[in-house]
Specification:
Distance between the termini: 71 Å
Order of helices and strands: EHEHEEEEEHEEHEHEHHHHHHHHHHHHHH
CATH superfamily of the domain at 1-120: Beta Polymerase, domain 2
CATH class of the domain at 1-120: Alpha Beta
CATH architecture of the domain at 1-120: 2-Layer Sandwich
Radius of gyration: 27 Å
Oligomer: single chain
Number of helices: 19
Number of strands: 11
Shape: elongated
Largest sheet: 7 strands, mixed
């Protein structure tokens, strides 16, 4: 915000939320959010600001495109994170606006000169590495359970922990049944963001501790030992593949049965790319887990069929890289078997006079033969 911006002249404007928090932690700030106190929607439109959304009085600066929201309060009217009535008026103070936020570290503001306004102790909790709710109204919004867990995943490496009284409110929200009113898209949105944080395992542990994981993703919550083993895999990803968010989800779910994984995917309405990679990782897990020595050619052939390798050859290398994390010897065998089998192409059989169904049958026979020969040769 430029102090000389004529569009802001005469307005009481404050930088709020994440930008204030991260700047004080020494983290990079990519986006600024602003709160305007004492103004009306007409005031903002007259200055050229463009209204966005229908639920909240938020405006975009016509040049910087940063968000400027009128100070507002919220009152619980129904279930879930959407069950709130918003009140925006020139008489809403900055402190009123900050009071509706989830955590104290997100309820700080700075004026135009950079002076901190911190009515709820956010700076103290930053220093103490504590995630603490601003007010008892925290327990009115089930989405805050996920957000708090996600912030823990982001700042866990700095030593942050959830305050006991905040954890108690998270448990209260779960016990009230409010989690059932969260729509799948919001649950997945927070979960996907958490997968991108430095310590995503902290997100799932926090949800498990308060019961939210059992409510939202019961397939992952059925056994604490199995969950911990899955969380340990979140940092063991194939180095060759850049889709690390998808890989983290795939590694988290690879131990689930096909039915469990399907139920979880449907409940969260996962994007297709996440579903497919999780399915491939599950097939690969079954291959490397307790694999015989030498490997069995039929199992390798079935695995290649399962990941659709013959049509989607780009899938093989990342899956072999995954095997290398768990069973390096098997990964070497698979790489050789695939290299030889992939060289056998339908066109060569057509050139030799094979036709119709015979092409497919001979193709499978020769590929299987190449796989068997490669596996036998590597164990002579």
């Amino acid at each position: 915000m430029s102090r000389n911006d004529p569009r802001l002249a005469g307005l009481e404007v404050y930088r709020v939320g994440g930008a204030v928090r991260d700047a004080r932690l020494g983290w990079p700030v990519y986006d600024n959010d602003w709160v305007v106190v004492g103004a009306t929607p007409d005031n903002m439109r007259e200055r050229g600001f463009k209204p966005v959304g229908r639920d909240f009085p938020v405006f975009l600066h016509p040049e910087t495109h940063e968000e400027y929201a009128l100070a507002r309060t919220e009152r619980k009217q129904g279930h879930g994170y959407t069950g709130f009535q918003v009140y925006a008026s020139p008489d809403v103070t900055l402190e009123d606006d900050l009071a509706r936020r989830d955590l104290t570290i997100n309820a700080m503001a700075e004026d135009r000169s950079g002076c901190l306004i911190d009515p709820y102790g956010g700076a103290r909790d930053l220093e103490g590495r504590v995630l603490r709710h601003v007010s008892p109204a925290f327990a009115e919004d089930p989405l805050r359970v996920l957000r708090t867990a996600r912030f823990l995943a982001r700042y866990h490496g700095l030593g942050f922990a959830i305050a006991e009284e905040t954890r108690a409110l998270m448990c209260q929200l779960v016990e009230s049944g409010e989690m059932a009113h969260l729509v799948a898209e919001r649950v997945w949105n927070e979960t996907e963001k958490a997968l991108g944080e430095p310590n995503p395992e902290a997100y799932f542990r926090a949800l498990s501790d308060c019961g939210a994981l059992a409510a939202l993703m019961p397939e992952l919550a059925r056994d604490s030992g199995t969950l911990e083993a899955a969380l340990a895999r979140l940092h063991r990803l194939p180095e060759e593949d850049g889709q690390w968010l998808r890989w983290r989800w795939a590694r988290l779910c690879e131990h689930l049965s096909d039915d469990e994984r399907c139920l979880l995917s449907e409940r969260l309405r996962l994007p297709r790319a996440y579903r497919e990679l999780a399915h491939q990782a599950a097939l690969t897990r079954r291959l490397w887990l307790n694999a015989p020595v030498p490997p069995d050619g039929a199992r390798v052939m079935a695995w290649l069929d399962g990941i659709d390798a013959w049509r989607r050859a780009e899938r093989v290398a990342p899956q072999v890289a995954l095997v290398s994390l768990e069973n390096p010897g098997l990964a070497t065998d698979l790489a050789l078997a695939w290299r030889l089998a992939a060289q056998i192409l339908p066109q060569a059989l057509l050139d030799q006079g094979f036709k119709g169904k015979a092409v497919g049958e001979e193709l499978r026979r020769r590929r299987r033969e190449a796989i068997d020969d490669a596996l036998d040769a590597s164990h002579l």
